Amino acid sequence: MKKNLIVSIKDLAFGYAGRQIHRKINMDFHRGKVVAIMGGSGCGKTTILRLIGGQIKPTSGQIEVDGKIVHEQGRKGIYELRRKMGMLFQHGALFSDLSVYENVAFPIREHTDLNEAVIKDLVLMKLNAVGLRGAHDLMPTELSGGMARRVALARAIALDPDIIMYDEPFAGLDPISMGVICDLIRTLNDALEATSIIVTHDVTETFTFADYIYFIADGIVAAEGSPRDLKKSQLPFVKQFIHSEKDGPVPFHYQANEYTSDLGL
Amino acid sequence: MIIFFENIGRGLRLKIIRLGAATRLFFTIISYTSENFKRFNLTIREIYYTGVMSLIIIIVSAFFVGMVLGLQGYYTLQKYGSSEAIGVLVALALVRELGPVVTALLFAGRAGTAITAEIGLMKATEQLSAMEMMAVSPVARIVAPRFWAGIITMPLLASIFSMVGIIGGYVVAVPLIGVDEGAFWSQMQANVDFSYDIVNGFIKSLVFGIACTIIALFEGYDAPPTAEGVSRATTRTVVTSSLAVLGLDFVLTSFMLTV
């Protein structure tokens, strides 16, 4: 099992500006698996992706990617690790001055010396995989939200990464686009034999295709398991989250003074 | 009273921190120099956006500045019976001062704001983060080419400004007012020194180019990733660049006149 481990988070703690976001996070991500990280807004899900990518450093604990401790790497080491990763940002983060074709070609041009004919074939193959080969000459402003997300996905897999990270891939999408993205995450993960790490709070969609799920709350992993196990879970937090209950362990009201005292009664 | 001094101290500390961060950005850019010159096409593209696209405003402004100099200069010089010196007055004013300074001010307003807004928006829309996650340094790929483009562009724009300004001065002085054409050009030729006036003007525009470009780049790179943050950064680019240009102009002129 250890051999298949590609990302391992051990006793991770992270905070900034006096605010502790993660207290003690332990997670393992195995090759070939689609793993989701779920939790309420602001619980630090996206921060975990940024920590895995080495964009920020943990306060304590460590993250190992392919056997290397991320925060101990220099710039060169971090860049070498990142070449094994692809990341889909929440709103795509396509380069607005480049066409769809050039966006997908960008990482290939930056990291390889391939000639234009090979680059063209690769780009069209990646775009075909997300169903947008016909849109290669459009500009990002001409794409719908779902299409932009798919182009960004094609760009993220341009160099056939070992790890694909998705930051809220379903946010703001219509049901059809959402279904397409779900299908693509699973298909591409299996085709590339990669590991997918998905940060989301979309329960319905994620439970249909994820292999394993981590729930984060109060800076720790509050629950973990396969979608089937978690559906049966009696943990109050998991129940509240899965069934979209308004109140529960995650309170409806943000921490505040007594209502009556605030109103001066 | 203590709060007043606390606020001054906090403000000063913040300014020093930002100055340090800008200096660090400057040295990071320098560290990517060889990489940038290997991929000079990126810089050429930016020279087009910062230089060629600024040509209209530079040429039109220079022509009017030259014409005003011609008019003002003539009415002052004729009181002393030396209206033939109008050519040298226009040329020296433009080459030594107005060319580099006004070009830098226009550059800060036209190209500087565009650079800040572009980089700030790239940051706000996570394009810079995306680039970093692709193991591509945004400083090497986005910031450094714009820096070198600014440095190359500024002296070229300043020379075009001075040249067009002189033509503006000529149009007012010779065909409109009737100053002798021979005197206009020959006085200029005799009294404008290449190594002193033109080289000093070039040095000024080079320094202004470095200052305006690094300010615009830093403001964009450091902008909070929000609409308000980018808007404030763009305003700061114009204000800081303009003050820096005027302050540096005084310092450089003092050195140049004493050396």
The main β sheet of chain A shows up as: 6 strands, mixed
Query: What's the number of extended β-strand segments of chain B?
Result: 0
Q: Helix tally of chain A?
A: 10
Mean pLDDT of chain B: 93
Shape of chain B: elongated
Measured as a percent range, the helix fraction of chain A is: 25-40%
Rough shape of chain A?
Answer: globular
**What would the average pLDDT of chain A be, to the nearest integer?**
87
Beta-strand residue fraction of chain B: under 5%
The biggest chain-chain interface is: A-B, 21 and 14 residues
How would you describe the overall organization of this protein?
The complex is a heterodimer of chains A (265) and B (259). Chain A is an alpha/beta fold. Chain A contains ten helices and ten strands. Chain A has helices at residues 45-52, 75-82, 100-111, 116-129, 145-156, 175-192, 203-209, 227-232, 236-242, 259-262; strands at 5-16, 19-30, 34-39, 60-65, 68-69, 85-88, 163-167, 195-199, 212-217, 220-225. In chain A, the strands form two sheets. In chain A, strands 6-7-8-3-9-10 form a six-stranded mixed β-sheet, sandwiched between helices. In chain A, strands 2-1-4-5 form a four-stranded antiparallel β-sheet, with no helix packed on it. In chain A, helix 3 packs across helix 4 and helix 4 (116-129) crosses helix 5 (145-156). Chain B is an all-alpha fold. In chain B, 88% of the residues lie in helices and 0% in strands. In chain B, helix 5 packs antiparallel against helix 7 (138-177) and helix 5 (86-124) runs parallel beside helix 9 (194-222). The longest helix of chain B has 40 residues, at 138-177. Chains A and B meet through helix 2 and helix 3 of A and helix 6 of B.
